[in-house]
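Pipeline run #58 for the internal structure catalog. This entry was flagged by the ingest filter as a single-chain record with no existing model, so it goes straight to prediction. Upstream metadata was stripped on purpose; only the residue string is passed forward. Reviewer on rotation: M.T. Logging verbosity set to normal.
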Amino acid sequence: MNKIANELLKIKAVFLRPNKPFMWASGIKSPIYTDNRLIMSYPKTRILIESTLAKLIKQKYPNVKGIVGTATAGIPHAAYVSQILNIPMAYVRSKPKDHGRAKVIEGEIQKNIPIVVIEDLLSTGNSCIEVVKILKKNRIKVLGVVSIFNYGMTSCINNFKQAKCKMYSLCNLDDLLIEAVRQKYITKLQAEQICKFRNNPTDSSWMN
């Protein structure tokens, strides 16, 4: 059993609904919907996820000296993990302030300090890569990215390769589907449907 996948399904942070798809803002119909903000409401799940994130970061990025969260969903996880690791934490705003010092990076991370970016969910990875670019532009050394959940889309993998940025996740869609089938939450056929969606979200033939 994948503990992270099990917890995400248990608290309904990830919904699988191939028979009644969700509508994304882009207009694409999706058999999956993820809301990792729910993790904050479940202390046992939260402790497991944050401690596992911290362990993954120390394993993959042993030289880390700071944590940066993505706005807004990555912020609480960055705060918890930075506390566990006892290192500074900051976050990158979705856009610069329109007043005061017009900052886009909140908190203080010294330049050239090696940091890791925490994201809650990776789909295409575009928004997270923009955060990485902002940090690099401000002369902050980005070791890589960690996320709680990753859809495993080809576009995400390619985008991170193009950005020359390492990326690791606690749980991906394949892990989650194995656990969902084991729990009889969905059937093997439905898992195949969801994989077809993942492989090409713009092709609605997965619904057939």
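catalog note: The chain has a mean pLDDT of 94.
catalog note: The two ends are 30 Å apart (CA to CA).
status: ready for reviewer M.T.
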